[in-house]
Specification:
heterodimer, A: 676 residues, alpha/beta, Pyruvate-ferredoxin Oxidoreductase, domain 3, Rossmann fold, 4 domains, seven-stranded mixed beta sheet, globular, B: 370 residues, three-stranded antiparallel beta sheet
């Protein structure tokens, strides 16, 4: 019996498997286990095959695996799809709906036709696919979902169709029963979750009870290959997804204006912020009174404040503006940033494409607007619900002309939380638009993590002039030439700060100019900030070197591939032999730091999730160093541990027989193709 | 302190053609600012691209000269983050009704307290006179290689349908009148539009100063039909000079020649706004078939629509519509965020002097504890 395994629940979109998986993860996490789970779905509201996969272990998990140890399927589409892709493990467990077995593949309407045709070539009905699992000695746990729902329908006197909503709970209960999780604890959890709605609770309670009974009756001596272990954990832990972590990061980071246009997989973040838009704040009494006396704040604020031990507790509200398109989203965030609000917009690839003209305006006008960019598979609409890191170069170079920008990529959910704060600090200190580069994996994965260490959160706002500072200046020049390129900023609405901003080139005061001398001076001033930024930013915000710093073999990557690379190196015991250089700051590119990290490296392996190895190209351009091997994936699914370890091993052994040579750039490359 | 017009003027040369209608619009704005005593430190002019946009830098207030068509998004962000600001947008007909029309329509739904002034000269002047969305079909300006084959947009009608709740049209060279319209728009709580008709003296040889002198029609000369007419009245506005009739002149249509050379409108229904040559107007008034437009008519959507319909062909100037009770976007936000006006985004204290955050997120984060 193993307590470390991969669990997958699959079913039609909209059938509640997300809820079931949250409950499952909650249970597994509360027992002290670590979990990393991921949601795979279609651009569809109801019906299409979707699934959630989770890796469970005693120790921290950062990766996903292709092979599933326990697969629970609600209906025929998911059952056939997973069996056909052969992603169930040797000695795995298959929990499935009895009614699925006899369904003809050609009748599975929800399945994509190209997949259906591939299956029909070899199999006629769903049960025929079972031979794939049998060869792998898979244990079959057949559940009669219809019998259970009929019972519920009769008991609650509702139509069968309505009772069938509980399929997700049946699959959940069957999985938990298999893992020998006790029924009373499950009921408690269902009560917590659904207790407010008696009817829903009742239905789910019956579904769980009948499923437990069904297994007891039909599988008297059930062989259990996996179990849930209780692990002692002292620290406070959370189970959180990337969208929420970024949202909470922005909130503590002081965001007060967020704009967005709905797009997968970014929207959940904005919705989360809106759902939590009224926040408790704690401000020192004297500080608040001082601001009121100076006239910066109106006296009315005291109506929303409560004095407690020398501190005011105040409610502050975040404005969340759902705009008519992404152009307007970034435009309004820029407007808000001009007033001094910390402002951001959140989007995904096609939305970012629309934002590029404004990106240039913000860059030219030195406006600290934050763009949270969750990449998804392109080009064009691409695969809206699938992942990719295909916008690295686009994020680095989007918009016409030359201007400084920040592109910071987080490697995992915890980094994404802290980076959501950091990106505001960088944007404001260096007065440039800042792109927080994420992707669908970070957006839609959930992980158990230690409770975020909030004492590490620091806010830096850079050089800002207030009314009093401005009184000391004869004429405020928004773009005054300075040694470090940073001109002190003053907000729209601050007395004495009147100045214009324009998309045209400007002089120090901000006025339009085409004067050759001024153009050159101002452009150089703006670009100077890049040097300043690279001089000042912490090394670990530029790049992180994991494992042995002196290793001669280096893996280079960025963003969400971090987890699987780290777990892969550990699993292969390569901690001494290999170092992993995780580039975090992609713009401005930390050339010197990367060059230093690459010194004495004899083999460079690039791992990323786009067709052309964009990080490799960026690195080649900046550091004149090309990877020896590029391992990449473009099918929209995350990189799995098994496939990465296979190719890493081959690369390290210098067995290039499994690679293809890129005739143009000279490196060996391999495309990873696993995934359902 | 009392602000004088000069206090709103910056030392900046916008490079407009001498005699351009823009000068009139700017003068009207300056007078409105002075009249309302706007605090320059709390005032922002947001502008787009084109002759209208560049001129914004002449104002000594905060100025954001933004992208082509994207004025309103920036204006919304400014206003929502700091509702204390007076936000005035300067846009052109190409900027606002062409490239930026999605924002023009959508902003109506939001209803922020913003004033939109559109410099409407029917051409893309800065690129040397191409047809803009407000140029009528069949018109051939000297800068066009062939007559325009597209229909004109009706900005007033769209504004009405989109939710703008103060709508007016002015004329660039009737500065006093325009200035009052703009002041009214700024004072109005909610989204307001002042569309300003202006001749482009360089590229437009049709809508010239002379044209407007003939064609301009003041709103208070509009009649409202009080009952259905037995026989519809056909009125034309002369589009091509013919037998003694000048462009822009109003005629009662009685023959084919008139019909051919005019934009034709037909009136018959009660409650419709009517525009008539003087003699015909007096005749209807005498017969009590019509009455003069009144102040309260400007609050009537139906009448505003019928005026908007007339405006496709006739440059009517004046206030056309006002809705008194309409919740602004800011007020709607305050439904959800009680402290919004007292503690708006721009004013929030997000950290102490050491950079420690003031926002307490423990309650939110605790909900993720396992």
């Amino acid at each position: 019996m193993r307590n470390s395994f991969t669990f997958c629940m699959a079913g039609p979109q909209g059938s509640g498997i997300d809820t079931s998986m949250r409950i499952f993860s909650q249970i597994v996490g509360s027992l002290g286990n670590e979990i990393f789970s991921f949601r795979e779905y279609h651009s569809n509201i109801k019906g299409r095959h979707s699934y959630l996969i989770a890796v469970i272990d005693e120790n921290k998990v950062n990766h996903l695996r292709f092979s599933i140890d326990i697969l629970a399927c609600l209906e025929e589409d998911s059952l056939a799809t997973h069996l056909f892709h052969d992603d169930i493990s040797y000695d795995g467990v298959l929990i499935y709906n009895k009614a699925s077995k006899n369904i003809l593949i050609k009748n599975i309407r929800t399945m994509e036709s190209c997949l259906r045709e591939r299956i029909i070539e070899k199999y006629e009905k769903v049960e025929d696919l079972f031979e794939i699992a049998r060869k792998k000695r898979v244990q079959f746990v057949e559940i009669d979902f219809l019998k259970i729902t009929s019972h519920i329908a009769k008991n609650l006197n509702i139509p069968l169709r309505e009772a069938m909503i509980s399929f997700n709970i049946i699959a959940l209960a069957a999985s938990l029963k298999y893992l020998n999780f006790d029924f009373d604890s499950l009921v408690n959890i269902l009560k917590q979750r659904f207790g407010k709605n008696e009817k829903v609770f009742r239905m789910n309670y019956l579904a769980a009870e009948e499923t437990y009974k069904y297994i007891d009756e039909n599988y008297k001596n059930l062989e259990r290959r996996f179990y849930l272990k209780k692990v002692e954990k002292k620290e406070k832990r959370i189970l959180i997804d990337g969208n929420a972590a970024v949202a909470i990061g922005k909130i503590i980071g002081g965001i007060s204006f967020q704009s967005y246009y709905p797009i997968t997989p970014a929207t959940d973040e904005s919705v989360f912020i809106e759902a939590n838009q009224n926040l408790d704040c704690v401000i020192e009494k004297d500080e608040l009174i001082k601001r009121i006396e100076k006239g910066e704040l109106s006296n009315n604020i005291l109506n929303y404040a409560r004095l407690e031990n020398g501190y005011y507790k105040i409610k502050r509200g975040i404005v969340v503006h759902q705009s008519e398109d992404e152009i307007s989203a970034i435009g309004s965030a820029i407007g808000a940033a001009l007033t001094g609000a910390r402002a951001a917009t959140s989007t995904s690839s096609p939305g970012f494409s629309l934002m590029t003209e404004f990106l240039g305006w913000a860059g030219k006008n030195e406006i600290p607007v934050v763009i949270t960019h969750y990449q998804r598979a392109g080009p064009s609409t691409g695969m809206p619900t699938k992942t990719e890191q295909g916008d690295l170069l686009f994020s680095c170079f989007a918009s016409h002309g030359t201007f400084p920008r920040i592109v910071l990529a987080s490697g995992d959910i915890e980094e994404a939380f802290f980076d959501a704060i950091k990106i505001f600090n960088l944007a404001e200190k260096y007065q440039m638009p800042a792109i927080h580069l994420l992707d669908k994996i970070i957006a839609n994965s959930m992980q158990t993590l230690p409770y975020f260490d909030l004492s590490k959160v620091k806010i830096e706002r850079g050089k800002i002039l207030n009314e009093e500072d401005l009184k000391k200046i004869e004429k405020f020049k928004r773009f005054v030439i300075t040694n470090d390129g940073i001109s002190p900023r003053a907000f729209f609405g601050t007395k004495g700060a009147i100045h214009p901003l324009t998309g045209d080139e400007n002089d120090e005061k901000g006025f339009i100019t085409e004067d050759s001398y001024t153009r050159s001076t101002i452009m150089n001033k703006r670009m100077k900030k890049i040097e300043t930024l690279l001089k000042e930013v912490n090394e670990e915000d530029k790049l992180k070197i994991h494992f042995n710093k002196n290793a001669k073999i280096a893996i280079i990557s960025f963003g969400s591939t971090k987890g699987v690379i780290i777990d892969c190196i550990k699993k292969m015991n390569l901690e001494e032999k290999v170092k992993f250089i995780q580039i975090r700051l992609l713009q401005p590119y930390p050339v010197k730091d990367v060059e230093k990290a690459l010194e004495n490296v004899e083999m460079l392996i690039d791992v990323e999730m786009n067709y052309n190895g964009q990080l490799n190209l960026l690195n080649r351009m900046n550091c004149l160093k090309t990877a020896d091997v590029v391992i990449y994936k473009i099918n929209g699914r995350p990189i799995f541990l098994e496939e990465l370890s296979y190719y890493l091993k081959k690369a390290i052994e210098k067995d290039f027989s499994v690679f293809e040579k890129d005739e143009l750039l000279g490196f060996y490359k391999a495309e990873l193709k696993n995934g359902v | 302190m009392v602000y004088k017009k000069e206090d709103y003027i910056e030392d900046f040369n916008e490079g407009w053609c001498p005699g351009c209608g823009n000068f009139g619009i700017r003068e009207a704005c300056l007078r409105a600012f002075e009249n309302l005593q706007l605090d320059p430190n709390k005032t922002v002019v947001v502008s787009g691209i084109g002759c209208s946009g560049k001129g914004a830098l002449y104002y000594k207030v905060f100025v954001a000269h933004t992208l082509h068509g994207r004025t309103l998004p920036v204006a919304i962000g400014l206003k929502l983050a700091n509702p204390e600001l007076n936000v005035i947008v300067h846009s052109g007909d190409g900027d606002c009704y062409g490239i930026g029309v999605e924002h023009f329509v959508s902003t109506g739904r939001y209803n922020p307290d913003i004033t939109l002034v559109v410099f409407d000269n029917s051409v893309y002047a800065l690129t040397k006179g191409q047809a803009s969305p407000t140029l009528k079909r069949g018109e051939k300006l000297k800068s066009l290689p062939a007559p325009n084959i597209k229909d004109a947009i009706n900005p007033i009608g769209i504004a009405l349908l989109s939710g703008y709740n103060y709508i007016a049209q002015g004329y660039a060279f009737n500065i006093e009148h325009l200035s009052n319209l703009i002041a009214g728009a700024i004072k109005h709580k909610g989204l307001s539009l002042v569309n300003v008709k202006q001749p482009c003296i360089t590229y437009d040889d049709i809508h010239t100063k002379d044209f407007y002198q003939n064609a301009l029609f003041y709103i208070n000369n509009i009649l409202i039909l009080t009952k259905d007419l037995d026989k519809p009245i056909k009125v034309g506005i002369v589009k091509r000079e013919f037998s003694n009739h000048k462009i822009g002149e109003l005629v009662i249509i009685e023959n084919e020649e008139q019909e051919k050379n005019c934009y034709v409108m037909e009136f018959k229904k009660a409650n419709e706004a009517v525009i008539l040559p003087k003699e015909k107007a007096e005749e209807l008034l005498k017969k009590e078939c019509a009455r003069k437009i009144k102040e309260e008519d400007f609050y009537d959507e139906y009448i505003a629509f019928s005026i908007a319909k007339l405006m496709l062909n006739i440059p009517i100037i004046g206030k056309i519509y006002e809705r008194k009770e309409s919740k602004t976007y800011e007020e709607r936000i305050a439904y959800n965020i009680e402290s919004y006006f007292a503690y708006p985004p721009a004013k929030q204290i997000i950290c102490d002097e050491e950079g420690n955050p003031t926002t307490d997120i423990r309650k939110i984060l605790d909900s993720f504890i396992v």
